[in-house]
Design a protein that fits this description.
single chain; mainly alpha; two-stranded parallel sheet; about 5% strand; elongated
Length: about 100
């Protein structure tokens, strides 16, 4: 038997956490800069900001991707979490004498 099956809510909570972390990261990047300067200076400052924070922006993009992936997994779990398993059904521990396996 497969134990510790995840629920749809497990994946939804993780998806929300990823998206909230993305918003927090973007806010921290933008918060540290003063955009009330003259127009010519703003353009320079904006390009400088994005060049300096390329790694942080990539992380935000990855977190958004993971958030969407986790949300899709939550929708799949609405049907059955067993659909998320990569092994074929014949490899599942269904024999009464077989040891239990954790979903992970």
């Amino acid at each position: 038997m497969i134990k510790n099956l995840p629920t749809s809510e497990n994946f939804k909570l993780l998806a929300r956490e990823c998206l909230i972390q993305t918003i927090n990261n973007l806010y921290q990047i933008i918060e540290g800069y003063n955009f009330s300067k003259k127009e010519g200076v703003i353009e320079f400052a904006e390009s400088e900001i994005w060049n300096y924070h390329k790694g942080d922006l990539r992380t935000c993009l990855i977190l958004v991707h993971q958030g969407f992936e986790l949300y899709l997994k939550s929708k799949i779990c609405d049907e059955s979490p067993l659909l998320l398993l990569e092994t074929s059904k014949s490899d599942w521990p269904t024999n009464p004498n077989s040891a239990d396996k954790d979903f992970n």
